[in-house]
Amino acid sequence: MPSLHFMLLKLAPLNTRIVGGENAPPGSWPWQANLLQTFPTYQIMCGGSLINSKWVLSAAHCFSSTNTANWNVYLGRQELSGTNPNEQVRTLSSIFPHPLYNSSTHDNDLALLELSTTVTFSDFIRPICLAASSSTFYNGTETWVTGWGNFKHNTVMPLPSPATLQELEVLIVGNNKCNCLYGGSIITTNMICAGVLAGGKGSCQGDSGGPLVVKQGSVWIQAGIVSFGYKCAEPNYPGVYTRVSPYQTWINSIIITKQTGFVTYTSSGKNSDSSTSCSSSPSITITPSTPTTTTTTAKRECLIFPRFNFPVGSYVILILSIV
Ligand SMILES: *[C@@H]1O[C@H](CO)[C@@H](O)[C@H](O)[C@H]1NC(C)=O
Ligand SMILES: *[C@@H]1O[C@H](CO)[C@@H](O)[C@H](O)[C@H]1NC(C)=O
Q1: By the 8 A CB rule, do 7 and 205 touch?
Q2: How does pLDDT run across 289-316, given as a tens digit for each residue?
Q3: Which of 23, 33, 233, 323 is least buried, going by the fewest C-beta atoms within 10 A?
């Protein structure tokens, strides 16, 4: 099983990246975006997710300003360098960091990016649905994080080579438990933690802004955005992600000309995290987000193409074998 690690933002603000992951089969994470801001002597790299044909979701900490100059967004990308036959590149026409983003606390660490022109969907480029505000993610829920990050990499060129998109399965760590692990007062209700508590696997530098996703039936839903963590893949320090579900209203207030698909993810069973308290720190009370009924009936691009259980490559092989 692959793993991802995060970097503490204060130490490495722009490049949280995956450690211990596995190469992702081409087309298996078709919403994954690669964001590069290129300067004469260095580049800044972040991840992102395509949420409809013209908008990408990422982390606010990837953007030092709303100046769109020098940013390129790559979709359908598999390798950081070399040939990417299914790739489409766009520049940005606007950057909307969340107005309440706090770089000290990492609270509200998300940004919406408007592409210069729409991308064309394909087997390798498809939007992901976002977790609606009424979603629940219990402790232990299986999720996936993807990215090109690595603890060896930083924001300074050259980019690593070879570098295939990495995927890693991580488990949700409830907010109470995560807050205990981080010392009791860091994890807000706008954050969601996921990791491998044994260590050795996690998101790390360069993964920032990338998606943490979960599958419900045939639908993939984004639960989090890579935000920060303590070092990379440290035991008992899960990665901390921006929780997507509290931002349904804000996202819909920015993206008004294109439909974004929100889907409620519902955890089953009982949330063991609700009975978790820290031995040395007071437990925090997690206020559930206000349930909002998704009444939208307009088409949601993230639901247009059913996703199968197989990566694109496997699917092609399956068809051939039936023939
Ligand atoms: C960020 O949060 C800290 C701690 O709550 C607070 O003191 C500070 O004023 C906040 N900064 C901004 C820009 O809101
Ligand atoms: C879920 O919470 C319980 C209670 O805190 C804990 O024992 C268990 O390890 C947690 N599971 C995960 C995957 O975090």
Answers
A1: yes
A2: 333 323 333 456 787 654 333 333 333 3
A3: 323
- Run of H or E residues at 52: strand 43-52
Indicate if the alpha-carbon torsion angle 177, 237, 200, 15 is positive or negative. Answer: positive
Q: Which domains does the chain have, with CATH numbers?
A: 22-263 (2.40.10.10)
Distance from residue 276's CA to the centre of ligand 2 (Å): 8
Name the closest-CA residue to atom 12, ligand 1: 102
Kindly give the distance from the C-alpha atom of residue 260 to the centroid of ligand 1, in angstroms, as a whole number: 30
- The residues, any chain, with a CB within 8 Å of residue 241's CB and separated by 6 or more, are 191, 192, 193, 194, 212, 223, 224, 225, 226, 227
How far, in Å, is the centroid of ligand 2 from the Cα of 13?
29
Instruction: Give pTM, 2 decimals.
Output: 0.83
Pocket of ligand 2 (CB under 6 A): 139-140, 171, 173-174, 177, 272-273, 276
* pLDDT of 304: 62
Is 61 considered catalytic here?
A: yes
Ranking 177-181, 224-228, 233-237 by mean pLDDT, the lowest is: 233-237
Q: What is the pLDDT of residues 66-81, one digit of tens each?
A: 999 999 999 999 998 8
208 counts as catalytic: yes
Q: Is 185 in the pocket of ligand 1 (CB under 6 A)?
A: no
